[in-house]
Amino acid sequence: MIYGDEFAVDVPPGFDPEQVSTAQLGKLFQHANRLSRFKSTPNNQFIHDLSHASFEGLLCYKINEDCMIEINDVTLKTPIVIRNQVSDLISFQFVSSVKRSEFLGESRNVHNLGHAMIVTVVPKRETTYRVPMVNVPIRHVAIHTTLSNLIRRMHEPRDAYPSWLLEMLDGNYKKPRQRVFFLEEIHRDLIWYCFHLPVSGALLGPWMSAKFHELLCIGLQLLKNSQTPAEPRPLDHALPSGEKIARARSILSREYSNPPALPVLARHLSISETQLKSGFKSMNGTTVLQYCIARRIDAAKLLLRENRHSISEIGDIVGYEDHSAFSRAFRRLNGCSPQEWRQSRSA
User: Fold this and answer.
1) How many domains does the chain have?
2) Residue 326 Cα distances to 59, 179, 311, 313, 337, angstroms
3) What is the CATH number of the domain that holds 328?
4) Structural domain range at position 280
5) How far apart are CA 243 and CA 304, in angstroms?
6) Is position 234 within any domain?
7) Distance CA 183, CA 307 (A)
8) Which partner for 69 in 43, 212, 244, 309 could form a disulfide, CB atoms 3.0-4.6 Å apart?
9) What average pLDDT values come out for the chain (347 residues) when binned by 10 residues?
């Protein structure tokens, strides 16, 4: 794993790294503030210099050469851009809450959709630039670890993991990739405790290491769960119908980008397609298709906030092969295009 030193510079509102040349970016960072030192920091130590006053709520802890955990509870007051170089890296970023705004006439309703996990995989050396949102709480926990030896280190069978990850491990796909997974309520405390550290002093190191490995196992299990076979084994017929519909929602929450066909999902739940449609609409207030579209757009918003991908790349990540179809769906739910939404959040 290569996780380079992080640097930050102040920039004007609305700064977009994609609109600036490589030479201009290099010049911009000639007098940057150093935020963290991963490679040169001893194991079991915090890695940040934190010369930038905006980062008082950031904790980055190096466990060893393969493992780092980051706890971020910051609200930036001035716009900045952060740069570092990474390679052979997989990151699991656990976001504490995802909110979606909906408009009904003149009324604006905000729904809290709970927690999410963003998986980022970077197989070869990349220089990354991040432009965090200003005056928006940044509250997440991220773990970073070596990609190439991860499956071997965890003593896991390769075929338990999705094909897109195996492609990257085998060197068949060398560009960075991201995926967004929505978490169940049971995962809430995994994140909450990180913002209210239960230990201090010498106990903090062992706690950080334990939390890293806990979150790594959860992240890997979610990846394994995303490997639903085309014809999964049917559930027990005796399960209550409400539990079956709840299972359907759970499956669609993690497979919204490529959801199973309704007949396949109904057979897995041991109910008829009609029962699935009516039961899902009754319990969730939306159709299966509308639910998947809403989840796709929610995932897109997370990636738009991350500001690491182009609009078309984000559309592909969340399941849209057609860029215009992604833009139309986004505008239908938010009243603006993805680009306009991103720009409004960085203003």
Assistant:
1) 3
2) 36, 16, 9, 11, 9
3) 1.10.10.60
4) 241-285
5) 34
6) no
7) 22
8) 212
9) 90 78 84 89 86 72 94 84 92 71 40 70 89 78 94 90 89 86 76 85 92 94 74 62 84 82 85 88 88 89 76 84 85 88 72
